[in-house]
Amino acid sequence: MFYRARSTLMNSKKTPSQSSVRRRPKQERAKVMVEAVLESTQLLLADVGYEATNTTRIAERAGMSIGSLYQYFSNRDEIIEELQRRHHHETSAIMEKAFAEAESLPLDDAIRRLVRATVDLHQNEPELHRVLTEVVPVSVNAESRAAMSEKIDAAQQRLFQRLASELPIRNITATALVIRETVEGSIHRAVLHGHSGYIDVVAEEVVRMVISYLRSHQTA
Question: Which residues contact 173 (CB under 8 A, 6 or more apart)?
């Protein structure tokens, strides 16, 4: 419900579970090298931004030759795509579990469960989440990222269809957009921009706001 996809493209050359690593590491040393590349890429993106991050700098920071890096990744964006794939795998598991639980809950409890899941999503490797959503341009690996979001998008749609059957919501698409952007924006800023100390208070205020907004349709 409260997950903002950064692209509406729905075609992808890779399935959501398919790794972007061109040569799958089998030996422990190779696995360590791949992890070093991914970690170095994340740190560089945070330190110098997307444009200044390139495979040469990534290899230098990871302590390997550029040739070694190219054994596993063809270019910078392929490395970023692997970061996106791994992060999405973890965060989508959080949201899918929350949606499954929310389907059988009363409205207020369902909203509270999903807002809590949005908090958990942002607190799962928050710096990586910030880099992937704020530093990496939307156009980078847009097709793969959109394909990764399909299952969550479908779950969001099912939830709002249920709400529409319980409340006189005139426009499901508009209502979903308002709620998603409000919740995602509030939680994203609180967790990633220095307000995590009172995230529970923010989350509860967001819950109250969303519930009030939805119930306002009953008197509109």
Answer: none
Query: What is residue 52's DSSP assignment?
Result: T
**Separation of CA 124 from chain center:** 10
| Angle, helix 199-215 to helix 107-123, in steps of 10 degrees | 140
Per residue in 118-149, pLDDT (tens digit) is 999 999 889 999 999 999 998 887 877 777 67
Q: How far is CA 98 from CA 43, 112, 139, 162, in A?
A: 30, 10, 29, 15
Q: Which residue, 174, 176, 149, is CA-closest to 160?
A: 176
The answer to whether 178 and 205 have CB atoms below 8 angstroms apart is no
Query: Up-side HSE of residue 8: CA atoms within 13 Å toward CB?
Result: 0
CA angle 156, 102, 7 (to 5 degrees): 20
Measure the CA–CA gap between 162 and 128, rounded to whole angstroms: 33
| Whether pTM exceeds 0.90 | no
Q: What is the CATH number of domain 27-74?
A: 1.10.10.60
Write the pLDDT tens digit of every residue in 33-88: 999 999 999 999 999 999 999 999 999 999 999 999 999 999 999 999 999 999 98
- Tell the CATH topology of 84-217: Tetracycline Repressor; domain 2 (1.10.357)
